[in-house]
């Protein structure tokens, strides 16, 4: 009985320990922008005794350009492939560490969405590096998506993923997609896949 109690107590302490040392990251910004807009994305951490942060920043640079960034709450930051932030004081609870300013490029077209991700992230305390769960933030361009024949996955261009997508629809009797109906006969058949393959190979 006593042994069980000790095990339970250790388990409880372990949980408390893990909880106290967890670091959570959030990315916040507008849900939607207009063509050519510039917008801010805030990076906020919550945890205790945090002095620094490192994380890998990923975004589609054909659609977005990182134009500026600045540190907050006494954090000095540098942003390249990785975001590196450090501070000379410890931070607790929830605190913003950086704002990243992005500009939408011409290739970010009406109705499209794109994702900004930070992963491989760690919070730095005075004694350890704490793994931080990945976050993704989706930004949408206002307006209606322009329908392009052959653009099955609606990302604004014709690629291998469209062929694979159409093949899956054909093989699994999936839902009809008008942008995949290459011969406009109201159904998805092998002929549509062949035509899309041709279009992909010549484009
Ligand atoms: Ca596509
Ligand atoms: Ca068809």
Please give a structural write-up:
The mean pLDDT is 91. This protein has 2 domains: 21-141, Immunoglobulin-like; 160-202, no CATH class. The relative contact order is 0.16. Helix 2 runs antiparallel to helix 3. Helices cover 22% and strands 42% of the residues. The protein has helices at residues 2-20, 160-171, 190-202; strands at 24-28, 32-33, 38-58, 64-71, 76-79, 82-104, 113-124, 129-132, 135-141. The protein contains 3 helices and 9 strands; from the N terminus they run H-E-E-E-E-E-E-E-E-E-H-H. Strands 1, 2, 3, 4, 5, 6, 7, 8 and 9 form a 9-stranded mixed sheet that branches. The chain has 203 residues and is of the alpha+beta class. It is elongated and about 70 Å long. The protein binds calcium ion (2 copies). Residues 151, 153, 155, 157-159, 161-162 line the site of one calcium ion.
Biggest sheet architecture: 9 strands, mixed
Number of helices: 3
What's the domain count?
2
**Separation of termini?**
73 Å
Q: Give the SSE string.
A: HEEEEEEEEEHH
Determine the fraction of residues in helical runs and give it as a percent range: 10-25%
CATH level-two architecture of the largest domain: Sandwich
Global geometry: elongated
What percentage of the residues does DSSP assign to strands (E)? 35-45%
Average pLDDT confidence is: 91
SSE topology:
Elements: H1 2-20, E1 24-28, E2 32-33, E3 38-58, E4 64-71, E5 76-79, E6 82-104, E7 113-124, E8 129-132, E9 135-141, H2 160-171, H3 190-202
Parallel strand pairs: 2-9
Antiparallel strand pairs: 1-3, 3-6, 3-7, 4-6, 5-6, 7-8, 7-9
Helix pairs in contact: 2-3
The structure holds calcium ion (CA) (2 copies).
């Amino acid at each position: 009985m006593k042994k069980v109690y000790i095990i339970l107590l250790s388990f409880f302490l372990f949980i408390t320990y893990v909880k106290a040392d967890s670091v959570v990251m959030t990315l916040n910004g507008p849900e939607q922008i207009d063509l050519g807009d510039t917008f801010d994305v805030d990076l906020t951490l919550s945890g205790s005794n945090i002095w620094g942060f490192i994380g890998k920043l990923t975004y589609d640079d054909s659609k977005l350009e990182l134009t500026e960034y600045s540190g907050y709450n006494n954090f000095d930051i540098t942003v390249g492939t990785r975001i590196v932030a450090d501070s000379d004081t410890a931070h607790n609870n929830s605190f913003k560490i950086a704002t990243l300013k992005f500009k939408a490029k011409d290739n970010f077209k009406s109705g499209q969405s794109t994702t900004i991700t930070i992963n491989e992230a760690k919070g730095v305390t005075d004694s350890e590096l704490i793994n931080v769960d990945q976050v993704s933030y989706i930004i949408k361009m206002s307006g209606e998506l322009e329908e392009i024949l052959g653009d099955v996955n609606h990302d604004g261009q014709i690629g291998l993923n469209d062929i694979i997508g159409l093949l899956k629809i054909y093989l699994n009797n999936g839902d009809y997609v008008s942008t995949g109906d290459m011969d406009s006969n109201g159904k998805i058949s092998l002929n549509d896949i062949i035509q899309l393959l041709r279009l992909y190979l010549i484009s």
